[in-house]
Each structure stands twice: as structure tokens, then as C-alpha cells.
Amino acid sequence: MPTERDGNWLSSSQEFLGAAGSTCPGCSRALALRLSHLLIRRLGDPLASLLVGMLPEREQFLFSGTLTGVGPGDSSLGYPDFMEHASYIYPEAGNSKIIDAFFEGLRTALPELVASQVAAALPTDLRRSYLRAA
Fold it and tell me: Is 3 contained in some domain?
């Protein structure tokens, strides 16, 4: 598991998802991407742009379509939406262990100041999962 806060939260989330175990080998990349896009939509700008800007250039392009017109964020997206989106990749992924692993990977990679901003921007149900890594 990555221990330094290098800002590559996508890679970190993918590693944590892989370590969380699954019956779908190789699905951690797809899960990390799907949940990351949902997170970007939930957070909105300017925080979404900051997170994407922290990624290596080769991965930033993966979010260009999501960032276009993201606006203030979609406050209707909560924990159940993350579970539902995870289950689209494979049914067993729609559980709290997977969602918690995604948020743990995210939080572990972010500098403290950015991690605090993300926590403050999340609704209570997602913040609880996100802060378990703290």
C-alpha cells in the first residue's frame, strides 16, 4: 500500500480496492475510475479540478469529460449511489468494504489540507466512510 502522500489518489484508490479483495480479478482499475468520476461529480468545482490536477498528466485526461460543466457538484449523490455504481462493475462490489477501501485510498494519497477540504465537502454518510482512514 502507498504510504506517502504523493497526490496520486487514483492509483492509491485502485491499490486499496485491489487489496480489499474481490471475485473479479483486474476490476480494481474500473472500480477506481467509476467511483472517481462519481466523486468528481459529487464534489464539483473548484475541488474537483484541484483533485484532477493532482494526478499525473497521463491520467488527467480520463476526467476531462467529467470536469466539463461539473459546476458546484451534485449534492444528491450519497453513499447508496457509490454502492450502486460499484455494483455496475460486478455485483459483489456494491458493499461497504469496497466503498471504504476506495475512500481510504483517496484519503491516504492526499495532502492533509486537501484531505480536509474533501472531508468538509462530503455529506455525512460519505464523510464517515472517508474518515475511517484517518
Answer: no
